[in-house]
Design goal:
Distance between the termini: 79 Å
Radius of gyration: 38 Å
Largest sheet: 7 strands, mixed
Shape: elongated
Helix content: 10-25%
Number of helices: 22
Number of strands: 43
Oligomer: single chain
Strand content: 25-35%
Amino acid sequence: GFYYKTFMWPKWAWKYYEHVIRNAAGFGVSPDQSDPDTYGKRYRHCDVLVIGAGAAGLSAAREAARSGARVILCDEEKVPGGRVLDENTFIDDQPGDQWAARISDEIRSMSDVEVLFSTTVFGWYDHNYLLAVTRHDDATCSTRQTLQKIRARKVILATGAIERSLLFEGNDRPGVMLCSAVRRYINRYGVKPGARAVIYANNDSAYGTLDALRSAGVEVSALIDRRAEPSAEARSIAARHGVEILTESRIISTCGGSRVRAVVVSSVASDTRTRKIPCDLVCVAGGWTPSIHLFSQAGGKLRFDSEKATLMAIPDEKMDCDIVGAAAGVSTQGAIDTDWSATMSDTRCSKVFVDLQNDVTAPDLALAVREGYADVELAKRYTTTGMGTDQGKTSNVHAIGLLAELTGKQPGDVGHTTYRAPYTPVTFGAVAGRAIEDRLTPVHRTPFHHKHLEAGCVFEPSSSWLYPKYYPGNNESMDDAITREVLNTRRNVGMVDMSTLGKIEICGPDAVRFLELAYINKFARLAVGRCRYGIMLRHDGMVLDDGTVTRISDDRYLITMTTAQSWPVQLHLERLLEIDVPELDVCMLPVTEQWASLAVAGPKARDVLLNLNPDFDISNEAFPFTHYREGNLAGLSVRVFRVSFSGELSYEINVGANSAATLWGAVRDAGEAFGIMPYGLEALDVMRVEKGHLSIGTEIDGQTTPGDLGLARMIKADGFFVGAALLGRKGLQREDRLQLVGLRPTDRSCAIPRGAVIIGDHRVATDKDVLGHVTATVFSPTLNEPIALALVAGGRGRSAGERLFADSPTASQAVEIEICSPVFVDPAGDRING
């Protein structure tokens, strides 16, 4: 509200205000250094997830484990016991801490039980998917935190409850502490929090603090109780310690500077008569709020319990969740007396803090209501109550009560704000894990990876794969290496890793019907042992991917996809099979990583295969282009495909991934006499441009049809395939669509700029004059000149030799180019056909 009222006018002034306000807000500055820590992630599954290792959580985990369930027990503390460790209590005739340790050891000894301490479950999502962070405080552990991703059949919330403060003037002054915090300091850590204390309570749970304070040697001046009749047990505790109980009384304010020096006390009914009590410690107990944030995140509903003065979970049989212990409202607080009406009628309430983290006071809420922000969600945003990193754990119930008083409603009618993950702040490092910098995305390495390293290759990412880019020789530049690799493959023989191509086996009686639905091609007459180039469309008629389809046996096919599209194509086919045609009897089996694939290409490729001692005939007559054979090479069981992406005589050899190193060595030795060399992705790209072959992201860019790419002849006549209906749209049949052509510079010494647009006049470069764009441009070692592929308006109708211009912001001037066939090398296919 302060922002909205103060900085709306004049508008230009905000740029001056903003920096001052943000600095004053205390948010700090984001670091500009790299995080030196490492983080991990784990996936876990269980029948029962128990959250909280207090008395209730330990008992629940033990019973679940005894039933034979797989159990995970999480607790944000380093040791089990929860609030039991803060209290001098006995369970089963044992001190609470000893009982907790014994039950924890018993649980750990059971099978199918995992216990995760220092672990905070911070988010509960759909289908019982929960996230937790484990903090590793051991100096010997190299991982700072681990993000636990847990899928549970059932969740048991034993998350306990959080004590609330009470509202009075100066309740933020140092020395004002929750009773539960005082007991923890004394009983768990042996810390004496003050010398002279008063206790201010509205329920019985505060009286146990007397024992802790007296055991630490702290003088207790008074016990101030808002209620008229504390329970008999509470009175007994006070009498045992000789402490005066001031019933029907309340603290009006605290006194002191940097810490509490005294409190001012009056009766609940009237504050005309006051009493000043010296102290340096104020122990307050305003009731308990169950920790049901996770329950609410999961969609559970809450209600306001007037007797306990807090929000409680409404049991829901549809949720696989049980709530136990203090989280379910089980407590020893007894009757509770709230002070919301007194707070709002108090004239001294300017420093009555409701939200101690965001410094929101009771008058701030009153102002929000007066200005029309009475709804609980609007009041939260207007005042920032509950918007800090604590998310209102100690303030929300007080805010609801005060809003009820201000609006004349019952607290249950006010509602509550939305509980969102995370329950407590989570570091970005834990969320990201190790997926940073060069590990941002998963990296796949081909089965030949170590052989590429031995050959000294330079790698580059291709989709999720780490792929050989080129193999530099001594003091050789990248361009020189690419030229050498291309020319050696064209003149002699080269070997290239093709393992990254996606591979799926399609099996079953309806395999042909399924393939003809997925592709624009006909496959019914494809013979066993034959391959066919195929085009797959999206539902909108645009090309999704290209690849090969090979018939392995009567009802078994192997399809290949481009590296970049292998995963989208798999999802596309799975959707097609499971949703569109579930009646087809077809099985899909992804086998990309099961096979190591090495292509041997070049005019001497057949000679290399002969040196590998094949047990099948590899003559051109017996094994022609687009055929497939199974057999043995160099003693290895192989699949060999006569296909080519380079435009040369080529054999793609597939072996089981575990035999990759053996195959690499055998092919290298067999081809040594013929000058065999490995070549990488860059050389492969140059050769595919020389042949006019297509690539994902360039020619197949999501906006091209088979007709645009010169492949309309492949479309089967019956028109029964995915994308056929929308492919027939008039707009996709226009003659002025962007269509694939080849480009040559008229000056053969000028390179065609990358990413250039095609224009008709080099003096004009406005958007309306753009005729198309360059998709790929390379220097062809085979032709010794620059060449390019482009998508140009009406490309098929343009005459060979027509002159246009390629213009790019990176070029000093437009380059004159001429239209030509996209097939630059061996247009008749003599090399491919051997």
